[in-house]
Specification:
Blueprint (H helix, E strand, L loop, with lengths): L35 H4 L7 H12 L10 E9 L2 E15 L5 E11 L9 E5 L8 H8 L2 E2 L16 E2 L9 E5 L8 E2 L3 H8 L2 H18 L7 E6 L1 H17 L5 E5 L17 H17 L5 H11 L2 H8 L6 H13 L3 H6 L6 H7 L6 E3 L7 E3 L13 H22 L12 H6 L8 H12 L4 E7 L7 H10 L9 E6 L9 H15 L3
Parallel strand pairs: 4-7, 4-9, 9-10, 10-13, 13-14
Antiparallel strand pairs: 1-2, 2-3, 3-7, 3-8, 5-6, 11-12
Helix pairs in contact: 5-6, 6-15, 7-8, 9-10
Length: 521
């Protein structure tokens, strides 16, 4: 989930300030060798250097994490009871010399029986810096806690309930917390940690190895395998699948990308001439306006989608060379978004996300969320010329999700630790090396699908999401090959925002679409 944690909504291209940021893969080194250079030592060292190294090593004194712990639970799904085992466990990350450099904590829900045909799904959230609690306790895990809709608050009770839309009846589920999130941790110093774990390339390498190690540890290499990622996790998913396929020797049957950040290059702010960012945002703004009027339908959305790829592009590129171009844009954009034409006119028909989120709720002195613009909070500084508050969804969900997950792990499962659970780590997000903005996720998706005629992919979005707008994925799919079969890569869009699964009807539709892919032959 959550794309780029710090929220600064000022310019359209500043998407690196919101959504699971964006972050080939020259996998010449195996994933477990990412720290080899840091461990390399010259043949001889002065005594003073040895003393300094010993002193540096002593700075990291972490108590050991508990041993893996498993309990038996059950959940009612579709009128039947599914009995399963819930496990909190640890996968070590080692360098080329076998030294343990990190510990990745996972939460797994598995149905006993050792059925080789039962799928296993590996799930990642985004950030970078987000743990997997959002997909776990919000979307597909056996227990859920409500968050992500209007009216949710930090003080809401952290009590979970059975999730009627859990995927546990069709797949085992493994939720992985990358280093620096959840209880997962590096055992290296700050600079080496950043190099080995907090970058786009290192992230893909070690997480691919973690998936491989889990499969070996639990004897599941024969199982059908799926990789799921939300937001920046949607950047991870196709790249991890391709790394598993071509480097780890593990075939992946399918991919599920939830509100994914797939093409960083398309929506950056480096090109003043590109209409793409404006094209991508307008349909989601329109969806929010239509929903507020009770008029959100696929047909209504088809109208704005047709507009942005035809007349809007023509008028945008014409600019002031056509005296009527900007006035036409102002008229249409005002009608689609519900914003005052005078505001849109001042922006020449180019409505940035920050302006939309504030102006659409201006009369109520509220601010909308970039993750679902119809989810609001009171603007604490309504008289300020610029927004000075955090995101309504982001700041409302941290407390209940953290408390619910820690309660589950420590009280229910009994995996006791004094460490703090990092549901959203701003430190990881700030330290992240984002690399170049490019389309590696799309390229790896194409290559993985092209390599395996049986592999399928499902991309899902919420209409109202402005952090990772659905129209980006629509444009990407329009340019992809057919791969010899109808809808090997399918896009579904549901009512709601970034966490559309917080709405029961959208969660049910999401599961139905996933079931069609999991059950396809």
């Amino acid at each position: 989930m959550i794309r780029d944690l710090p929220v600064r909504v000022t310019r359209v291209g500043r998407r690196a300030a919101w959504c699971a940021v964006v972050l080939a893969a020259g996998l010449a080194l195996a994933p477990w060798t990412v720290a080899a250079a840091a461990d390399a030592k010259p043949d001889a060292k002065p005594a003073a250097a040895d003393a300094g190294a010993a002193e540096k090593k002593s700075d990291i004194e972490l108590p050991p994490l508990p041993a893996d712990k498993t309990i038996k639970q059950s959940v009612k799904v579709g009128g039947r009871t599914v009995s399963y085992e819930a496990t909190v466990g640890v996968i070590p990350v080692r360098n080329a010399k076998g030294k343990k450099i990190a510990e990745v904590v996972y939460t797994a829900y598995t149905v006993p029986g050792n059925d080789p045909h039962r799928p296993v799904t590996f799930a990642f959230n985004g950030g970078p810096g987000a743990s997997s609690v959002y997909l776990n306790m919000g979307a597909i895990g056996p227990k859920r806690i409500q968050f992500g809709v209007d009216g949710d608050a930090p003080s809401d009770a952290a009590i979970t309930q059975d999730n009627p839309n859990t995927w546990l009846d069709m797949s085992d589920l493994v939720f992985i917390d990358p280093v620096g999130t959840g209880f997962s941790r590096s055992l290296e110093d700050e600079d080496t940690t950043k190099k080995d774990f907090y970058s786009t390339e290192a992230d893909i390498k070690y997480l691919s190895r973690v998936v491989y190690d889990w499969l070996v540890k639990h004897g599941r290499l024969r199982a059908p395998k799926y990789v799921m990622g939300e937001s920046y996790g949607g950047y991870r998913a196709p790249r991890i699948a391709y790394a598993l396929q071509t480097q780890m020797g593990v075939g992946v049957n399918g991919l599920v990308m939830v509100s994914p950040y797939l093409d960083p290059a398309a929506i950056g702010d480096g090109d003043a001439l590109s209409p793409l960012p404006w094209m991508i945002n307008l349909p989601s703004m329109t969806a929010a306006h239509l929903e507020s009027q009770g008029k959100l339908t696929p047909a209504a959305m088809g109208d704005v989608e047709n507009y942005v790829r035809t007349q809007y592009v023509t008028d945008f590129l014409a600019g002031r060379s056509d005296p009527g171009a900007i006035s036409r844009m102002v008229q249409k954009v005002s009608a689609y978004t519900g914003l005052d034409p005078s505001v849109v006119a001042k922006l020449d028909g180019r409505v940035d996300i920050g302006t939309f989120l504030r102006e659409v709720h201006r009369n109520d002195k509220k601010i909308g969320s970039v993750y679902d613009s119809n989810v609001t909070a009171f603007d604490p500084f309504p008289g300020s010329a610029e927004r000075q508050s955090g995101d309504p969804i982001l700041e409302a969900l941290l407390a209940p999700t953290t408390s619910a997950m820690v309660d589950f792990v420590t009280r229910e499962v009994g995996w006791k630790t004094d460490a703090h659970y990092e549901a959203l780590s701003y430190a990881v997000n700030k330290a992240w090396d984002r690399g170049d903005a490019n389309d590696k996720p799309v390229a790896d998706l194409r290559k993985a699908i092209g390599n395996d005629p049986n592999m399928k992919a499902l991309i899902v979005h919420g209409y109202n999401d402005l952090s990772c707008p659905f129209y980006t994925s629509q444009l990407i799919l329009n340019q992809m090959p057919g791969f010899g079969q109808t809808q090997r890569v399918k896009l579904s869009v549901y009512p709601g925002g970034h966490m559309f699964y917080s709405r029961p009807a959208s969660a049910a539709s999401f599961k139905a679409d996933a079931a069609a892919m999991y059950n396809a032959k």
